[in-house]
């Protein structure tokens, strides 16, 4: 029989993170580029805690928010959004972050599915809110996230944020309750069927933040100066709004302006040391740096995830700008962190090309996440660096089911979540994603990794973005079509096609070479900054390879 330990059983509460930050790092700042004006706003953790307590009072007394209620946000990264994260979960309610880039019909569907009682939104989204408010029957209050002076011409609203909290006391005793109570809700941007809700708990978010703060993960410590460019409506901004105050790091919130010049100005002005976001954002910044001959010397590390890190981007930032690029992998259902790429002592002394190969892997498994790779029959595959299979995960910050019961088929009978990603693992716990299960190009019984093919194509100097999709082929079942957006000033011509093909010949196996290359003026980008393959498939649905009879 086990001997029960004599240790306190204290529930893990999100509010404790902010209490700690206010007490121990009270003068550390959250700097925001205000979404409503573009101006810079500064506020330290002590003041943030006071305002969060005012907001908690307002939520309970004015908006009648009770434990378990869902309160939605449609907002950019800002100090107010940060306060909402803590006040809503702190009173025992659930922060439902909504991605404003989604189709309005989908937003109405989500708010209704979640039965959101109140919605907090940035001024920029006022036209969206005016269009959907009538259809959102459960929502009793619409709060505009600004002050009275910026509230002109906004129709749908009960109050502004600053009016709502301004007359409230800054005394509030954070209640302690079951750590497994729901704290956050984020819907996956489902490519088929309705979106599915992932319901995070206090326990899962606190444990995830602790994991983020490990030094091989985000781990910037109290000297860190962190800018999450990844939005707070995209899986809790990868946990940074919890991890930063927990360690006492400075937070820089970029608001609505995510273009190259704005990001550069903020990075330089605030001496940001660590930034996190999807590849498209870093591509935009890189173009600006290259064109204007600017630098970002304060930045030590970039965490890049959400889709694969293109080799050209890795080399550009590391070789030309002296910034360490770190790839991470995860997903909404995983809070999101699963792997982060950090080199091991055994890699010291490897030459640059070997290091690049390792850095292009999705990263090393983070402690707390259990993983197995299985074949089509569910048999576990070895971690030998080559056996690719379906990735399944489990752990304290991984969803055990979807909100209100959808998508049960993603959960195995023996307690694992099927991620839908295909990957292999090596003996050091480094993961290499070869595809999404549904994006693998199946040709003559073999699999072509669309990610590898795209990455190779992105290495060509004329290519801005590339997407590989499997197209039906009478002989091979599927063959790759490469869809390319060329860089500004480059011609979409047969000569460019030939030059890309010629380049790929040296980069990928012969049988991977695309059967055709087509150009698009602008790649369709989804709500979370990733290339929308569903849209591309729609655009090319009647496509036939030249010279091939159906
Ligand atoms: P989301 O839930 O919107 O964050 O999307 C999660 C999915 O994004 C994962 O299941 C992967 O397919 C993809 N993803 C995330 N990070 C990476 C990465 N570093 N490389 C390749 N795919 C990634």
What would you say this structure looks like, in words?
The chain has 550 residues and is of the alpha/beta class. Among the domains are: 14-257, ANL, N-terminal domain (Rossmann fold); 440-539, ANL, C-terminal domain (GMP Synthetase, Chain A, domain 3). The chain is 28% helix and 23% strand. The chain is built from 15 helices and 25 strands. Helix 1 (15-24) runs parallel beside helix 8, helix 2 (45-61) crosses helix 3 and helix 9 (260-270) crosses helix 10. It is globular, with a radius of gyration of 24 Å. The chain starts with 14 loop residues before the first helix and ends in an 11-residue tail after the last helix.
What is the H level of CATH, i.e. the homologous superfamily of the domain at 14-257? ANL, N-terminal domain
CATH topology of the domain at 14-257: Rossmann fold
Number of helices: 15
CATH architecture heading of the domain at 14-257: 3-Layer(aba) Sandwich
The low-confidence runs, each spanning 5 or more residues with pLDDT under 50, are: none
Q: According to CATH, what is the class of the domain at 14-257?
A: Alpha Beta
* Quantity of strands, as a count: 25
Strand content: 15-25%
Rough shape? globular
Structural class computed from helices and strand pairing? alpha/beta
Mind summarizing the main beta sheet? 13 strands, mixed
- Nearest-integer average pLDDT: 94
What's the Cα radius of gyration? 24 Å
Helix content: 25-40%
Neighbour order of strands in the largest sheet = 2-1-11-10-12-13-14-15-16-20-19-18-17
Bound heterogens, unique: adenosine monophosphate
Termini distance? 68 Å
